[in-house]
Write a structure and sequence with these properties.
single chain; alpha+beta; Tumour Suppressor Smad4; Beta-Lactamase; 3 domains; 6 helices; 22 strands; 30% helix
Length: 404
C-alpha cells in the first residue's frame, strides 16, 4: 500500500462524518478530549486505539482498551500493531468502521437503478420455508465445503461458489460481489456466464438492496411489465440474490440471473443457493483470519529483522575501549527502538561516545536512529570533529525532512 491518505467511514453504529487519515500524523481514537477521532460512548476507552502509517502500511494498535478492538471480527492483542487492508472493518464500542486505503486492482461496477417507473415481482424466501436438502444436493454441498476449506483468498473462495452455482442451479449467470457503497457500487469478486467467456455483468439495484436486508430474495418476471423501465428492461426472466454473512455481518452477495425464459432454474435452486451462501460466509471468514495472521507474522518478522540490524550497529553489551569500561542495554518499546548508542575509537587513545534518543518509536524511529548513527560514525572516522560531525548530520536530516 502506498503512502496516500486513507479514511474511515461508519459501516454500522452512530452516525459520524467520514474521517480522513493523514500518514504523517498518528491518529488517536477514543473518548479523550485530545483524541484525533473522538468516539463518545461508554464502551470506548479514553485512549482506545491508534492508527498510524509506518514503512509502507497502515497499522492499527489497541491501546489496552477495556472492551477491546476487533478487525473483521477478530479481537486484537493489546499493544501489537495489526496491518490494515482496504475494506477491513474495525469494531470499537458500538461502531463498525470501514477502512478505505489504496486498494489493489479490482473490478467494480455500478448497479442498474431499476427502482423507478415500474415494479417487479419479488418473493422473499424465509429460511424456515426452504425445506430439506435433497440427497443429490447434500453431496454437492459436501464437495463445495471441501473445496472452500482449501481456499487461500477471497477470489478462490468466490470462484468455488460461482462454479458450483452456475453448474448446479440452472441459472445462466452467477456472480459473487461485495457492496462498497450500499448497492450502488460493487466489487466483483468473480462473475461467470454459461454463454460468454468474458461476461460483462449488470446487477439489479432493487434485488441487491432487498438481499442486503438479510434474506434470500427471488424475483420473477411478469409479462405485464415487460415495457416498464425496471428490472424487466434488463431482459431478465429469473433472478435470485442471497446474502453472505461473514462474522455476523453481510460481507458479500451471491447474485444469479437468466435472460432466456426457457432457462428456468431448478426447483430446489433457492435451497442450494442459500446453503452455498452460508458456506461462502464461513470460508470468507476463515480466509480473512488466515490473511490477518499472515500479515501479523510478516510484520513481526520484519520488525525482528530490523531489531537484529539495529543490534549490530550498537557495540557489545559489555566491553572496554581505550581504558573506558562500559555496559549498555536497550529495551525497545515496539521491537525496534529509537535509542542511539555508539563508541568510536578515534585513535591516539581518544574515544567518541554517542548517546541519544530519537523522538517517537517503532520502525520509523529505528530507521532514523540507524541513519544518524551511521552518518556520525562515518564522519568521525574520516577525521571530522565532534562538532562538525553533529552539525553536518543535522543539516543532512533537515534537508531530507524539508524535501518530504
Amino acid at each position: 500500500m502506498s503512502s496516500e491518505r486513507a479514511s474511515l467511514a461508519v459501516h454500522e453504529g452512530p452516525s459520524l462524518p467520514r474521517m480522513e487519515l493523514d500518514p504523517a500524523v498518528s491518529t488517536l481514537m477514543g473518548r479523550a478530549s485530545d483524541a484525533t477521532i473522538r468516539l463518545n460512548d461508554a464502551a470506548v476507552s479514553r485512549r482506545h486505539a491508534r492508527i498510524e502509517f509506518e514503512g509502507d502500511r497502515w497499522l492499527l494498535t489497541d491501546l489496552e482498551s477495556r472492551h477491546g478492538t476487533a478487525v473483521n471480527g477478530t479481537r486484537l492483542v493489546a499493544g501489537q500493531p495489526r496491518p490494515l487492508e482496504d475494506g477491513d472493518q474495525i469494531t470499537i464500542g458500538p461502531w463498525i468502521l470501514r477502512f478505505a486505503g489504496t486498494a489493489s486492482q479490482r473490478s467494480t461496477v455500478i448497479s442498474v437503478d431499476d427502482r423507478r417507473g415500474g415494479t417487479a415481482s419479488f418473493t422473499r424466501i424465509d429460511r424456515a420455508a426452504l425445506g430439506s436438502i435433497a440427497e443429490r444436493r447434500l453431496e454437492a454441498i459436501i464437495r463445495v465445503a471441501a473445496a472452500l476449506h482449501t481456499a487461500v483468498d477471497e477470489q478462490e473462495a468466490a470462484m468455488v461458489v460461482a462454479d458450483a452455482l452456475v453448474g448446479g442451479t440452472g441459472f445462466q449467470r452467477v456472480a459473487v460481489v461485495r457492496p462498497l457503497s450500499g448497492v450502488e457500487q460493487l466489487e466483483v469478486l468473480v462473475a461467470l456466464d454459461r454463454g460468454q467467456a468474458n461476461p460483462q455483468p449488470r446487477f439489479s439495484r432493487s434485488l441487491l438492496g432487498a438481499a442486503l436486508e438479510g434474506q434470500l430474495v427471488q424475483m420473477r418476471d411478469m409479462p405485464a411489465l415487460q415495457e416498464e423501465h425496471s428490472i424487466i428492461s434488463m431482459g431478465l426472466a429469473e433472478a435470485l440474490c442471497a446474502p453472505v454473512r461473514v462474522d455476523g455481518d453481510i460481507g458479500a452477495l451471491v447474485y444469479l440471473d437468466s435472460e432466456s425464459v426457457g432457462a428456468r432454474p431448478q426447483p430446489d435452486a433457492a435451497i442450494f443457493v442459500s446453503a452455498v451462501a452460508d458456506l461462502c460466509g464461513f470460508a470468507l471468514s476463515h480466509v480473512a483470519a488466515l490473511q490477518a495472521k499472515a500479515l501479523q507474522e510478516e510484520l513481526i518478522q520484519d520488525l525482528q529483522l530490523a531489531r537484529q540490524v539495529q543490534e549490530r550497529l550498537m557495540p557489545r553489551t559489555v566491553g572496554t575501549l581505550n581504558g573506558l569500561q562500559y555496559a549498555v542495554g536497550a529495551l525497545p518499546g515496539r521491537h525496534v527502538a529509537g535509542d542511539l548508542f555508539g563508541l568510536i575509537d578515534l585513535g591516539e587513545g581518544r574515544t567518541a561516545l554517542l548517546l541519544g534518543d530519537v523522538a517517537g518509536k517503532g520502525a520509523a524511529a529505528g530507521m532514523l536512529m540507524a541513519t544518524v548513527q551511521a552518518q556520525i560514525e562515518a564522519l568521525l572516522e574520516h577525521g571530522a570533529s565532534l562538532v562538525e560531525a553533529v552539525e553536518r548530520s543535522s543539516s543532512s536530516l533537515m534537508r531530507r525532512a524539508a524535501a518530504h
